[in-house]
Write a structure and sequence with these properties.
The protein is mainly alpha-helical. It is built from eight helices and six strands. The protein has helices spanning 6-24, 49-54, 57-77, 113-121, 170-196, 215-226, 261-276, 284-320; strands spanning 33-35, 40-42, 81-83, 88-90, 131-134, 139-142. It is elongated and about 150 Å long. Its main location: nucleus.
């Protein structure tokens, strides 16, 4: 067995340690910039084009990537570490480099009518607890849903109101009211979806089928079906004697609850001004248009009167002259004005020649 000196072992250990330090130590002229949140390393040093041309390009790029990765790993090990399930993990800081998104940012949903009203009136949403005290069972129960507290649908006895029909089924009436509330909430939900998706609209009133629909209901259903096309019924064929449907839209229009308060204020001030004024206000444009319509109607009446008068005189002259037409009568004459034998002459005496 060959003897090994202690100096040789120490020298070999120092050499191995230097090799290890050489593997994890990288020298750069300019410091590499790091974004540990994105695990990003930016090397600002110039690329040695001579080394790329002289040596193997693939080997040079591998060596450069290895050095920069080693610097990034050294920075990660400087962060505080912890052990989770036999694994050492570090908590990365917030990212400082903004990276482009793969997809566009989702658009914010349009607020519902209640959200707009609450924002206008300053109503803030208060979070309610999920559990409430049930006085009947003397314990905490859920506020909503199955086995909720103070559930009136589980009552076996219902008091009949004084004004209600004593023979009516109160349980069925309560169940129908609940179904109506559920349907109303669903309709409001669909309206909110339609408002927030490309300006779509949900009809306010639908056409419910009946056993014996009337003529008006059938006509309205036909016109609604024609207007349900992409062209809003513009290119739909019409029946030979089909009439245009009237009053298809809403008859009355109300001002919205959420709108321009300045316009409403001006409108109310104008009403107060009219009520306070002693002399009634006159719309000059409306008065002039009314006067023009009356003058036009009077002129049209005069023209019709003169036309009818002239037409009557001409008809009287025709009766005295040639007669109403050239039709042949019982005789051979062409008219009473000539020397024919139809109504005048020898036939008038009563003797037939």
């Amino acid at each position: 067995m060959a003897a090994v000196s202690v100096e040789h072992v120490l020298a070999q250990a120092e050499k191995d340690e230097a090799e290890k330090l050489k593997l994890i130590t990288v020298q750069k002229e300019l410091d590499v910039q790091f974004d540990l949140g994105n695990m990003l390393a930016i090397d600002p040093n110039m690329l040695n084009t001579r080394a790329v041309n002289q040596q193997n390009r693939e080997q040079f790029l591998r060596s450069l990537a290895r050095d920069n990765t080693q610097l990034l790993i050294n920075q990660l090990w400087n962060l505080p570490t912890e052990r989770v399930d036999e694994a050492v993990v570090v908590k990365l800081p917030d990212a400082s480099t903004r990276l482009p998104r793969e997809k566009p940012i989702p658009k914010a949903k349009a607020p519902t009518r209640w959200e707009e009203f609450a924002k206008l009136k300053g109503i803030q949403k208060k979070k309610k607890t999920n559990l409430v005290w049930d006085e009947v069972h003397k314990k905490w129960k859920r506020r909503w849903g199955y086995q909720r507290a103070n559930d009136n649908t589980k009552e076996w006895l219902i008091e009949v109101p004084v004004t209600a029909d004593p023979n009516a089924d109160q349980f069925k009436k309560r169940l129908d009211a609940k179904k109506e509330r559920v349907a109303k909430n669903e309709l409001n939900r669909l309206r909110n979806i339609a408002r927030s998706s490309k300006g779509g609209k949900v009809p306010g009133v639908g056409l419910t089928p009946t056993e014996q629909p009337s003529k008006t209901e059938l006509s309205m259903a036909m016109h609604v079906a024609k207007r349900s096309t992409a062209s809003v019924g513009r290119f739909q064929d019409k029946l030979p004697k089909e009439k245009e449907q009237r009053n298809m839209g809403k008859k009355r229009k109300f001002q919205p609850l959420i709108g321009d308060f300045s316009a409403e204020k001006n409108k109310q001030l104008e009403i107060l001004k009219i009520m306070d004024s002693k002399k009634p206000t006159m719309d000059i444009t409306k008065a002039v248009n009314r006067q023009m319509r009356e003058e036009d109607s009077e002129a049209a009446a005069k023209r019709r009167k003169s036309f009818n008068k002239g037409r009557g005189g001409k008809q009287g002259a025709n009766r005295k002259g040639k007669g109403p037409g050239k039709g042949k009568g019982p005789g051979k004459g062409k008219g009473p004005g000539k020397k024919g034998k139809a109504h005048g002459g020898k036939f008038a005496g009563g003797k037939r020649k």
